[in-house]
Amino acid sequence: MTIKQVTQFLEQKFPLYLQEDFDNCGVQCGDVRQEITGAMICFEMSEQVIDEAIAEGCNLVISHHPLILKRGINKIVPTDRVGAMICKALAHNMVLYSMHTNIDSGEGGGNDVFAEKLELQHVKVLEPHKGLYRKLVVFVPKENAEALKSALFEVGCGVQGNYDSCGYTVHGQGQFRPLEGANPHIGEENRLEHVEEERIEMIYPTGLQRAVVQTIYEHHPYEEPAFDLLPLENESRTIGLGRIGELPKAMPVSEFLEYLKDKLGFEHCRYAGDATKMIRKVALCGGGGSSFIDLAIASGADAYVSGDFKYHDFFKSHSGTLLVDIGHYEGEFFIKNIIHHQIKENFANFAALISKMEKVEVKYL
């Protein structure tokens, strides 16, 4: 089994097109065509983790945070932190791979598990993905409609939530006249033709557009197939950053903070807001979610839990929403377990390990 087969499986579950514009999910370095010997899973890439992977015979290291962001790096040298990791990985024929905001946003990903840990009910996405889907409208002869639909479903069209092979078909009549130099599938040069056709409609993820167009040209019988690619305003109900839901019961602030500590296993947090209010409706975002404070407030959350708040962010608690900064790592450390579970449950011919050498960089006194 190759490393590419493993990463392709992970990308079916958490597609790369779900990542934010600034992000760089996927392969960071290395040749995915080689046979996999084992996978080491970590939160953050480090030389210690790479050394551990080498010792355990793993040639794939999967981290949550990318080693290289979209802005890139100017040089790769062993005297630089990032360069040293890349050099060591390549010297040992390793692949470094990251699953960041694609697994944050995806169904069953970081924010969903965060909400599960807090036992939130009636959970919704806090910041749904916009522009995630487009609609394909394509016209095809009736006798070729099923074959084309099957090919489009195979490439990823027609998936809506827990349903696939979704589409809509209308029967009609198309017309065209082949001009000089045409090579028509139906009809003759300079003769107007009328054909029984099907109008097929289905949605597809925007990130698959190139594959969708290629599929049309490969499987449509016409020399010049007619089709439309339409932008949609629909927001996803299940994919996006952050979540909002209700606790099993309302609780005072002091009890809520202890509840967070118990469920997430941290010892310290920062917070601001009315300490006398009751907390029931909770918004959250794993990692650094300060940019969603206003959205959490507007959604009517009694509390918003995330990380990386700045000093002045806490003044927004005057709106009535309790703001709780539990730290960046504390809100998404469990993503390692999500990745490990996906690999272990679906692959039995190589070892998948969670790093034991990884250490949290930030210390508290």
Any overview of this molecule?
With 365 residues, the protein is of the alpha/beta class. Helices cover 26% and strands 30% of the residues. The chain has 10 helices and 15 strands. A 6-stranded mixed sheet has the order 5-10-12-13-14-11. A 5-stranded mixed sheet has the order 1-4-3-2-15, with helices on both faces. A 4-stranded antiparallel sheet has the order 7-8-6-9. Strand 12, helix 9 and strand 13 form a beta-alpha-beta unit. Helix 6 runs antiparallel to helix 7. The radius of gyration is 25 Å and the shape is globular.
Write out key terms for the chains shown.
365 residues; alpha/beta; six-stranded mixed sheet
Give me the secondary-structure topology.
Elements: H1 3-13, E1 26-29, E2 38-42, H2 47-55, E3 60-63, H3 81-91, E4 95-98, H4 101-105, H5 110-117, E5 121-130, E6 133-141, H6 145-155, E7 168-176, E8 193-205, H7 209-219, E9 226-231, E10 235-252, H8 253-264, E11 270-272, E12 278-288, H9 293-298, E13 303-307, E14 322-325, H10 335-346, E15 351-354
